[in-house]
Amino acid sequence: MKKFLAVICAAILTFALYSGLAHAHGVIGQRFIPSTLAIEDPFPSDEMDLLTFNRGSKDKEGRETSFGFEFSKRLTPDFAIAIGWKYLLVDPTEGSKASGAANPEFNFKYALLRSPEHEGILSVGFSIEPGGVGPKRVAEKVTTLGPALYFGKGLGDLPDSLDYLKPLAITGVVEVGIPANRKLAGDEGRNSTTIGYGFAIMYSIPYLQSSIKDIGLGAPFDRMFPVAEFNFETNINNPDRGRTRGFFNPGLLWAEKYFQLGLEAQVPLNNRSGKDVGVRGLIHVFLDDIWPNIFTWTPFGTVGATQR
Questions:
Q1: What pTM was estimated for this model as a whole?
Q2: How far apart, in whole angstroms, are the C-alpha atoms of residue 240 and residue 192?
Q3: Of the candidates 42, 69, 13, 9, which has an alpha carbon nearest to the alpha carbon of residue 256?
Q4: Choosing a second label site near 192 at 20 to 30 A (CA), which of 44, 147, 209, 214?
């Protein structure tokens, strides 16, 4: 693990020597909206979560820690496919600790609507987590299907009297988790259909200094995005019908041309969510900025730069 972390740190330092402000990903109009940690962003793009880290809060079932990655590739300017994977460390309240690979997750995302003048985007998505791929000690046996709706909106079109609110942006998601084979997997009493929903509010220091007023902040502060995320999950059938887990995730994002870093606390909002504070981390890279000749190509033709 130490050797792996050393390689990651070396890669980050290499990128930093040649980087400028991020410009191709999550851009709508004059607005760059970085990827967040607790909820999915609305932009189809060529990118990779080089490393995600989540040490969850401890609840009645125990605590789960994960390390993972996700790779996303556009096939058209508005459509992208992604595959993600996590390595889980499970510390249950009862029983012995376990670890191993989770099931992979496949995601499809399509941008339905973009409004550069209003800094807005609306996308739809669909995810599939095939059950039983990972080892039984940590991975779910049930296959889960997840239709989703994503949105993003910058507040740059506010009146000039509210200039200092214009750097704010909001992203959000509503998704349904449908266990496709509960009876077949023998877990009908454990897995239920869920509705996940959440939103993120962030303040763009780069937008403030470039579009509102240069307040003289230099590196590294001129590339920061303070962020607050809220994410919830509600069971809509048995077992645990109507019960909700929710978290408040305050943190900080920092973006360069080739990569982005993120760190957030994970604060439970009710007893069902846990009793102590967890932590989330992210190392995210923009692949078509690093290797544009490779990642703008598809079997259907060249897609060009990520849509702005």
A1: 0.85
A2: 8
A3: 13
A4: 44
As its CATH architecture, domain 2-302 has Beta Barrel (2.40)
Q: What are phi and psi of 191, to 5 degrees?
A: -100, 135
Instruction: Give CA–CA dist 152/172, Å, rounded.
Output: 7
Return the DSSP state at 58: P
Domain boundaries, the chain: 2-302
How far is the C-alpha of 218 from the C-alpha of 246, rounded, in Å?
36
Q: For the chain, give me the number of helices (H) and strands (E)?
A: 5, 17
The DSSP line for 206-260 is HHIIIII------TTGGGEEEEEEEEEEEE-SSSSTT-EEEEEEEEEEEE-SSEE
The C-alpha atoms of residue 124 and residue 146 are separated, in whole angstroms, by 11
Using CA atoms, how far apart are residues 229 and 198, in angstroms rounded to an integer? 7
Tokens of 269: 């909002």
Pairing, β 47-55 against β 31-32: unpaired
Backbone angles phi, psi at 108, to 5 degrees: -125, 135
The residue to which tokens 């989330």 are assigned: 280
With contact defined as beta carbons under 8 Å apart, do 232 and 196 qualify?
yes
Please name every residue paired with 298 in a beta bridge, in sequence order, or none if there are none.
301
Residue 300 confidence (pLDDT): 73
pLDDT digits (tens, 9 = 90+) for 80-119: 999 999 999 999 988 899 999 999 999 999 999 999 999 9
Distance from the Cα of residue 151 to its chain's centroid: 13
